[in-house]
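Please fill in the sequence for the structure shown.

STRUCTURE ENCODING:
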């Protein structure tokens, strides 16, 4: 994000509450000014928790005349309120959860959504297609919309930036959503919630382990602390790997104040037996 914004935009980080994981609203209000272009936050956040102050963040942002940008996990929207419900102007995220399997780091494709207003749509980083009349009366076809904004018309000044792979993944995501439908999204969302919270309860019951670390509600990712076990995350993950299990992302270097903590993710691909096996393996490693 910093690379894309340099040198025109200065990206500033905001502190978070060490207990709830939510954004520090006092710090946000103090930083906001007429020079603020936008406030960006993720929901669920990087550490998995849900931002319970989203409406307040959006209200403070709009009061300063800035845009509220929210990054979401699309698979969560079957059970969570859509960002538009709490005041987001721009929504973005990754399509990977929508039917895309792991492929040596892929497949991934970004998405962006806004209100249907020209000032937003003209800035979309992709080509736009619409239905237009042809030379034959009563016949319609698909064509480029706002062609003058593309690199085909203005070269390096164009706004779109998209590759064939991302476009193909967009088709995959579209088919996945069409097959799932609203009820399917709600069902998979509830299933992920149940699995993730079951995993947190099972792991949190192990001596010396604290899960989840934060008090805030979470969707599918949560922070687990090994501070009370006397072991480092690297040791724990090495022991789990010996048992055929990939442990959580080590957060000790990125967030040293949290101590020996890891970020775990539970999705629809994990069964109850998988989670019980993880808990049993972790107990063995910590003995």
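FILLED IN BY: designer on duty
SEQUENCE:
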């Amino acid at each position: 994000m910093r690379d894309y914004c340099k040198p025109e935009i200065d990206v500033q980080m905001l502190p978070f509450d060490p207990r709830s994981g939510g954004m520090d609203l006092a710090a946000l209000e103090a930083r906001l000014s007429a020079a603020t272009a936008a406030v960006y936050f993720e929901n669920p956040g990087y550490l998995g928790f849900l931002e319970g102050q989203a409406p307040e963040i959006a209200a403070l942002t709009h009061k300063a005349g800035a845009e509220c940008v929210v990054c979401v996990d699309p698979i969560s929207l079957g059970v969570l309120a859509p960002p538009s419900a709490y005041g987001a102007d721009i929504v973005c995220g990754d399509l990977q959860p929508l039917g895309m399997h792991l492929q040596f780091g892929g497949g991934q494709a970004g998405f962006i959504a806004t209100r249907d207003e020209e000032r937003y749509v003209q800035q979309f980083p992709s080509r736009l297609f619409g239905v237009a009349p042809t030379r034959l009366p009563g016949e319609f076809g698909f064509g480029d919309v706002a062609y003058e904004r593309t690199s085909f018309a203005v070269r390096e000044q164009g706004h779109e930036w998209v590759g064939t792979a991302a476009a193909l993944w967009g088709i995959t995501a579209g088919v996945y959503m069409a097959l799932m439908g609203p009820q399917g999204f709600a069902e998979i969302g509830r299933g992920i919630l149940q699995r993730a919270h079951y995993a947190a309860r099972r792991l949190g019951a192990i001596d010396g382990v604290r899960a989840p670390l934060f008090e805030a509600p979470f969707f599918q990712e949560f922070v687990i602390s090994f501070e009370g076990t006397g072991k480092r995350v690297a040791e724990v993950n090495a022991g789990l790997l010996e048992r055929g299990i990939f442990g959580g992302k080590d957060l000790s270097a990125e967030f040293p104040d949290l101590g020996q903590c890891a970020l775990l993710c539970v999705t629809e691909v994990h069964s109850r037996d998988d989670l019980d096996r993880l808990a049993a393996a972790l107990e063995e490693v910590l003995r």
